[in-house]
Design goal:
- The protein has 2 domains: 69 residues, Arc Repressor Mutant, subunit A (Orthogonal Bundle); 149 residues, Trna Endonuclease, Chain: A, domain 1.
- Helix content is 43%, strand content 21%.
- It contains 9 helices and 10 strands.
- The strands form 3 sheets. The chain has a 5-stranded mixed beta sheet, sandwiched between helices. Strands 1-3-2 form a 3-stranded antiparallel beta sheet. It has a two-stranded antiparallel ribbon with strand order 5-6.
- Helix 3 crosses helix 4 and helix 7 packs across helix 8.
- The longest helix is centred in the middle third of the chain and has 19 residues.
């Protein structure tokens, strides 16, 4: 302590070491584990999305996410200026080219969950199919398409809703697909039997018109329902959660 009674600040290297230590009082709660499970289900989310999903203030959201990061259950990155992106520990950081679509799908999933829907994410579908060794649990077969080893090419929806009337597939449509790709998808939806309805959430009116036109040409107009992405939450209220 100096003659004036004030203590010196610790060296910069020492401050960095302290910053890297787990902070006292950051014990994981049941809500923390639920937050980690949500991030694991959706694959990536912004801090604002996590706060909205769990009703957290900005300060409390920071504390709980910091606890999860220090525990090693979630990781974070900042690919763009603005909010950090959270993703599950053990998973690769989200790719920049996929980020817009991934975060939009997360936004749809969290809003549907807040309305009480039983939502299945693409990440959950992939795990189910891998565990069962059966790709047709959630995926639909694409017409006359084969991958490596001549295995049929399949397609998973971005999300699915378990509703009282059966399964509803949800597709987040942000950009225009080639006519051939969209035609194949519509043909696949027309031929499949596991989903009673396929909800296309389109970013623009032009995309809605393209999906509608191609669905009619492929005979999928009875199962495919396009709607504008700005108003999907009213659509979510049409689906009652399973008992």
């Amino acid at each position: 302590m100096s003659a004036t009674g004030s203590s010196k600040s610790p060296p910069k290297a020492q401050r960095k070491r302290r910053a890297g230590r787990p902070q006292r009082g950051f014990r994981l709660t049941e809500r923390d584990l639920a937050i980690a499970a949500f991030i694991d289900r959706v694959g990536c989310a912004t801090t604002e999305q996590v706060r909205e999903r769990f009703g957290l203030s900005k300060r409390m959201g920071w504390r709980r996410l910091q606890a999860l990061r220090e525990s090693g259950r979630v990781r974070s990155c900042r690919p763009l200026i603005g909010s950090g992106i959270l993703y599950p520990a053990g998973a690769a950081a989200p790719k920049l080219r996929d980020l817009d679509h991934s975060l939009t799908a997360t936004a749809v999933a969290l809003q549907l969950e807040l309305e009480g829907a039983d939502v299945v994410t693409e990440r959950m579908m992939r795990r189910d199919e891998h565990a069962a060794g059966e790709r047709s649990l959630w995926s639909v077969a694409m017409p006359q398409r084969f991958g490596l080893g001549r295995a049929p090419v399949t397609h998973r929806p971005d999300l699915a809703i378990r509703a009282t009337g059966g399964l509803v597939a949800v597709e987040v449509e942000l950009t225009r697909k080639s006519k051939g790709r969209l035609a194949d998808l519509m043909a696949a939806w027309a031929r499949q039997g596991q989903y009673g309805e396929v909800l296309y959430l389109c970013r623009s009116r032009e995309l809605m018109q393209l999906v509608t036109s191609q669905a009619c040409e492929s005979g999928a107009q009875g199962v495919v329902r396009p709607t504008h992405l700005d108003t999907p939450w009213a659509i979510g209220r049409l689906f009652q959660p399973t008992a």
